[in-house]
């Protein structure tokens, strides 16, 4: 991206936020590209591996990584692609840890999933541990509500949390089918326990199902009894886990006001992981795939401010130069854990395998995988 194009994209300025929470980097710019000499090595390693290997690239990845992806998409689409390509012995998942776990759960026993950098985690997924969720469930059991509470976990969660959900009669959801999942849950039970993204859960319950904000209770895993009274837990229709996306959670109502004041006729397009006050005041709300399709269908000359990960917004701005596309945040933030997957790590992983050494394999424990698969299958069976 040229300097002039970048300045147009970042209309609110290239501010820095070095005190930002874990999960994002707000340095005022995207990380620099890796050594271009690595490109030749990447092509050579990929050619040597041939059809034995498949490279999957999440939408939030760097351009230099996306260039080597056989398929790009969101997390579940990529996991399904790995499952469908049973002839590929090795799956290089250029995403984050929970995504690679999902691919390992869905693929056959003869396929091996590789995460080029094991430190590529997800701050949201890390906000809900198996022990914390089990402790919350024990409270629900002691209050006599567990048997009428249906757990739903967002795809952006660990295999252990998906397994808990499957073992307790729940389902997984994506940002595009969260409404279907929640409606199904209320047909099956009286309450929903939504993990780990409070914003997606709240936006779905209130804006899609018509519940009131006060019918949603927020469970704080670090506070006794979740920071709630027994009566509040019993009254709540939806119990939201106190978790969020470190990228989407940064967008604010003030960002919308400032963008609309600066750019006439701009449309605000955001992901449903954003806060309630952002989603409820945006022009268009949709999953990552929906955001891409919205811009693809937009007329030339239209103006958009997009509230999602910066790599994707920059890629859309480059691809659709006849539309005016801006990043919504006032500071320039990208998913730092996703960006740990860079060309050096991908080249290292591919070259290692090409020389006969498998590195960074993701392997989900069999019992965990069994019940996580139950939850994933239930999602696919949603009406």
Description of the structure:
- By secondary structure, this protein is of the alpha/beta class.
- It folds into three domains: 115 residues, 3-Layer(aba) Sandwich (Rossmann fold), CATH 3.40.50; 120 residues, Rossmann fold; 85 residues, NadA-like (Rossmann fold).
- Helices cover 42% and strands 16% of the residues.
- α4 runs parallel beside α5.
- The chain is globular.
- It starts with a helix and ends with a helix.
- 49% of the residues are buried.
Tell me, what's the shape? globular
Residues in β-strands, percent: 15-25%
Portion in helices: 40-55%
CATH topology of the largest domain: Rossmann fold
Task: Tally the beta strands.
Answer: 16
The total count of helices amounts to 17
* Overall tally of domains: 3
Enumerate the spans where pLDDT stays under 50 for 5 or more consecutive residues.
1-21
First-to-last CA distance? 43 Å
Q: What would you call the structural class? A: alpha/beta
The Rg value, from CA coordinates, equals: 21 Å
